[in-house]
Specification:
Radius of gyration: 27 Å
Number of strands: 12
Distance between the termini: 21 Å
Shape: flat
Number of helices: 28
Length: 659
């Protein structure tokens, strides 16, 4: 479904462009965005706390997520002050961004215009009906907005390799060479955006950084988000991907011109497609393919970038990898099992496919499917992770589609129907448990909530099954973390724990005390630990006795951040604002802590720049601090403590997937 976007709302950049995808479910920029839309109502103390001088750099909050079994990615949150500057940059240079991203003949993922529509779910039931009655829904206009711009041509690299365009290129060219830029974002030199927009020689000879040009402002903004570093940019926000796209557009243009001078003509001798930092080179002549590869390597080197040699892949037609073969075989397995456990049944003068498992045991369906997939993996010689995401997505689609049928047809759920849903859930849980990627936790949590809410409406007996399976799996996962700790697992575990709290019907089904205690004891405490653990304890009466000690832990941590990094720290500002809005910490406690914060000399300097002067007399000071606290607790900043609608947060995650 398509819905209109208010294109005049430039602050929506705060909701779409400046935060990573893989954050805890509790976290979003929606509160920050809403508050700054009514900036005149924000107490001046908080404005002074958040905003910095334009010349100041900031320190991003960096955190790890699991990339696969053996590696992790480092993502970053940008300082709120710089987020506001980024929104202003988009307002001033939106057209220039689009122009700078429309130069390349090669790019297949780039912004093409301001977004005028946003998508919602294709499954009417899951979007409109699976929402908790205990949550006051706030269906604001930007509920599912996931991008400031519309993009051409492909949202994901897999969409390209399975497209008609790819087939056309395969018909036209005999050879395909895939190249990947090594540690792309960590290697980008921010000043190179000036080379890309102007050209390197001109930029070197005209280095007046005081000129407020598009490239100077973009360069300055990007470095200020990251310690004023010029080597490497932060990873995660779409803003960073647009920055890199502008640079690569310039690189593409230089490659095109260099090959043209050698009489190697695009569209005749070769075609190149680039998806972010992945190059696809198509040609019919090996020697020309070698020249093209050399030119790409040389031009990347000119921009201080390099190719990852371990990811270089050469193919002759047909361009069909082992992973493609495995996914095709798995697709057939899914079709086969779905036909086996369903049948066409008459309904209102037509036939619809519905569950039929009266003579089929769920255990047999699950174990046989898993064995068949294992066989494919061994036969084709691929990694498990090559197919797990596809299995989860495909089976989830079958579940959502079947749920829609039950909503719009006068159908009652039977034991056979439950066995159908439980079979697919058990299969998905198995493969999810073997897939360490944080990004898959969002779709898994969404599936659990969907099945739980649907079965609760139809039969409370069946809904207990999904809660029990999640609880058991989560406790095993926490035990695993306690014994083999890896920081990249944290967000996934928190998402599962928050989902369990969301669907739990009673205290017995909630996270048990011993598991929560293990979570508290994990290393590398940070801002995300604070909001997730505090929310779980605050919503679970049996864990509320942990709140006082967790409050002290949070205050001590923020004080350390103030002393070590100061108010340039993105983590400190995020954490302090959510601390002020947290309903599980008393106002009196917050006043005591804030009185120690306002004594900080750096903060006093920040406040003086916006002409904020707090009273020295204790009673007047406490009264002023209470106004600040009351403002924050009456709304929220980044963590919606009171009315967490995990369903809507998950929908937005699903409509804003990683690239």
């Amino acid at each position: 479904m398509l819905n209109k976007i208010n294109q005049d709302d430039t602050l929506r950049v705060l909701a779409t462009e400046v935060t990573p995808f893989e954050t805890p479910l509790l976290f979003s920029n929606t509160g920050f965005y809403k508050n700054y839309k009514e900036k005149e109502n924000i107490p001046s103390f908080l404005v002074g706390l958040i905003e910095q001088k334009q010349s100041d750099y900031s320190i991003p909050f960096s955190f790890k997520i699991d990339k696969d079994v053996n590696s992790y990615r480092v993502l970053s949150l940008i300082h709120p002050s710089l987020q506001i500057d980024i929104a202003s940059f988009y307002e001033a240079f939106s057209s220039r961004i689009l122009n700078s991203c429309s130069i390349s003949e090669f790019s297949i993922r780039h912004p093409s215009k301001k977004a005028s529509r946003y998508y919602t779910s294709e499954y009417i039931y899951t979007e409109e009906h699976l929402k908790s009655n205990s949550v006051e829904l706030d269906l604001e206009e930007n509920q599912y907005q996931n991008s400031y711009y519309s993009y051409k041509k492909f949202q994901h690299i897999n969409f390209f390799t399975s497209s008609k365009e790819f087939l056309y290129l395969e018909e036209k060219f005999k050879y395909l060479l895939k190249l990947d830029v090594q540690t792309c974002f960590d290697s980008i030199y921010t000043h190179s955006i000036c080379w890309s927009v102007k050209n390197k020689r001109f930029a070197k000879n005209n280095t007046n950084k005081n000129l407020k040009t598009f490239e100077n402002e973009f360069d300055s903004l990007m470095s200020k988000t990251n310690y004023n570093e010029t080597n490497g940019i932060i990873t995660g926000p779409e803003f960073s991907r647009i920055f890199s796209e502008v640079i690569f557009q310039g690189i593409d243009s230089e490659i095109y011109k260099a090959l043209e001078k050698l009489d190697i003509i695009c569209g005749v001798d070769y075609e190149i497609r680039r998806y972010v930092d992945d190059y696809f080179l198509f040609a019919n002549n090996i020697s020309k393919l070698d020249i093209i590869e050399r030119k790409i390597i040389d031009m990347l080197y000119y921009y201080k970038l390099s190719i990852n040699k371990s990811k270089r892949v050469f193919q002759e037609r047909p361009f069909y990898t082992s992973k493609d073969i495995a996914i095709d075989k798995v697709r057939e397995l899914i079709k086969s099992v779905n036909i086996k456990i369903t049948e066409l049944k008459p309904n209102d003068e037509k036939f619809i496919r519905l569950p039929s498992m009266k003579r089929i045991k769920r255990e047999n369906v699950v174990t046989q499917f898993i064995r068949d997939v294992k066989s494919v993996i061994k036969d084709v010689n691929v990694e498990l992770l090559d197919v797990t995401a596809y299995i989860q997505k495909s089976l989830s689609k079958l579940v959502y589609s079947m749920i829609d049928k039950y909503e719009f047809q006068p159908l009652q759920i039977t034991n056979s129907d439950f066995e159908y849903f439980a079979s697919y859930f058990d299969i998905i849980l198995y493969f999810y448990s073997l897939d360490r990627r944080t990004s898959t936790s969002f779709s898994f949590c969404q599936l659990i909530i969907t099945l739980h809410d649907f079965s609760s409406r139809k039969s409370l007996i069946y809904s207990h099954y999904f809660r029990d399976k999640l609880s058991h799996y989560l406790q095993l996962k926490i035990l695993q973390m306690d014994r083999e700790y890896q920081e990249g697992m944290k967000i996934e575990v928190y998402n599962l724990a928050l989902t369990l709290e969301y669907i739990a019907e009673n205290i017995q089904e909630r996270l048990p005390d011993n598991s929560f205690r293990r979570l508290i004891g994990l290393k590398d405490y940070n801002y995300f630990d604070f909001i997730c653990l505090m929310h779980i304890a605050g919503k679970n009466k049996s864990l509320s006795h942990y709140i006082p000690s967790m409050t002290i832990q949070a205050e001590d941590y923020m004080t350390k951040l103030m002393n070590d990094l100061g108010f340039k720290s993105a983590e400190l500002i995020h954490m302090l604002l959510d601390y002020l809005s947290c309903p599980f910490i008393t106002c009196e406690r917050k006043i005591i802590y804030l009185k120690s914060v306002v004594c900080n000399s750096e903060l006093k300097d920040k406040l003086s720049r916006v002409k904020v002067k707090l009273p020295k007399e204790i009673v007047s000071l406490e009264k002023e601090l209470k106004i600040i606290i009351d403002y924050s607790t009456s709304r929220y900043w980044f963590s919606n403590w009171d009315k967490v609608d995990i369903w809507n947060l998950l929908m937005k995650k699903q409509l804003n997937p990683t690239y």
